[in-house]
Design goal:
CATH architecture of one domain: Alpha-Beta Barrel
Number of helices: 14
Order of helices and strands: HEEHEHHEEEHEHEHHEHEHHHHH
Radius of gyration: 29 Å
CATH superfamily of one domain: Luciferase-like domain
Largest sheet: 8 strands, parallel
Strand content: 5-15%
Number of strands: 10
Structural class: alpha/beta
Shape: elongated
């Protein structure tokens, strides 16, 4: 449970130097906009300009009930708050009166450290988040989906953003579009299934079905059933398998969506802490380099060496020439057999092959 993203990230900022720190979402209808603006400015300065301001309308009906807020008003209130916070960040003095807050001659004494702090809105099913992103020309974080039709289809979601941007005279960039996926990976699919299956089943059955009672969801019957229905098939937006499986999922999402800026991983506790850390380590070691193309040039270089082997054999011929110039070395060559050295000599000729030639001539 993270009751205050700003406080949590302030602590994270002390322990990190380069990583960007996003709030996930601050549910704007639950806070006075001026207070949110002040806290984000504070966070931006404490983290050296690494803050990303993520906001949402408030996803849990229980929160709205606790605070006495009508869920029908939440998305409009988020829109209203974003407009005012952006003005405050620009140094404007703002007066505004709403049915849920009043702001009289409000101005920030300290502006964000970043000249343009990134704004990101959350988007799930309704067009609201994408519409806000288009209206203000800001970033989005979407719930990943491999659907090709309907409200959950990412191309349809992006169309909402582009339509709103056109209407309000702004622009949206796919580079600012973040998509959330869930995964757990291991050395083999079977190992990943063993590590995450039971935890996935418990999380789904006890939380999504038993507690939230989300419409249309049914309890899984077994860990195998959980894995199949969550991560099975080409249309699955979750991956429980190997690094290669996750690479395939990400590349498929990029293709289905038409292109996104960032893939964000959902942190869960399907597996135990040790296996979860190993899964993330494998993402860093194998998945990110592959998806971002960091090793493409290495592969091309390797293939070039293979395709042009004759060119590089010239170096071995140079070594052989020096051996034959030395009488003792040439004599020893005929006695050369399989040897063991610390590392292969990169430019060495095939000594055993040359020795056989010498013996044949003799």
């Amino acid at each position: 449970m993270i009751a205050s993203p700003e406080m949590f990230l302030a602590a994270a900022g002390e322990r990190t130097k380069r990583i960007k720190l996003g709030t996930g979402v601050i549910s704007l209808p639950y806070h006075h906009p001026f207070n949110v603006a002040q806290r984000m400015v504070q966070l931006d300065h404490m983290t050296g300009g690494r803050a990303i301001f993520g906001s949402g309308p408030g996803a849990l009906a229980s929160d709205a009930h606790t605070l006495g807020i009508d869920p029908m008003t939440q998305r409009d209130r988020q829109d209203e708050a974003i407009a005012l916070i952006r003005r405050l960040f620009k140094g404007e003095r703002v007066s505004a009166k709403s049915d849920w807050f009043t702001m009289n001659d409000a101005a920030l004494q300290i502006l964000p450290l970043q000249e343009d702090m990134p704004f990101v809105v959350a988007s799930q099913i309704s067009p609201s988040g994408m519409t806000l992103a288009g209206k203000y020309g800001i970033g989005i974080i979407s719930l990943g989906s491999m659907s090709t039709q309907g409200l959950m289809a990412l191309p349809q979601q992006w169309e909402f953003a582009e339509d709103a941007a056109k209407k309000h005279g702004t622009t949206v960039s796919r580079a600012d579009w973040r998509v959330l996926l869930s995964w757990h990976i291991a050395e083999t699919r079977e190992q990943a299934h063993r590590e995450a299956g039971a935890g996935l089943m418990r999380w789904h059955n006890e939380y999504n079905v038993g507690t939230l009672m989300r419409p249309g969801l049914e309890a899984f019957k077994s860990p195998e059933d959980a894995i199949e229905k969550t991560a099975g098939g080409e249309s699955a937006a979750s991956t429980i398998g190997t690094p290669d499986d996750l690479v395939k999922t990400i590349k498929n999402l990029i293709k289905v969506s038409g292109g996104v800026g960032t893939i964000v991983g959902f942190v869960h506790d399907w597996a135990n802490p040790e296996n979860t850390r190993r899964s993330w380590d494998m993402v860093a070691r194998y998945v990110i380099p592959e998806v971002n193309g960091y090793i493409d040039a290495l592969r091309k270089s390797r293939q070039f060496v293979i395709d042009n082997r004759a060119v590089f054999e010239r170096a071995g011929q140079a070594v052989m020439a020096k051996i034959m110039e030395n009488e003792k070395a040439a004599a020893a060559l005929s006695q050369t057999g399989p040897g063991r050295i610390a590392i292969p000599a990169v430019n060495a000729p095939d000594l055993q092959k040359e020795a056989e030639k010498r013996k044949t001539k003799a």
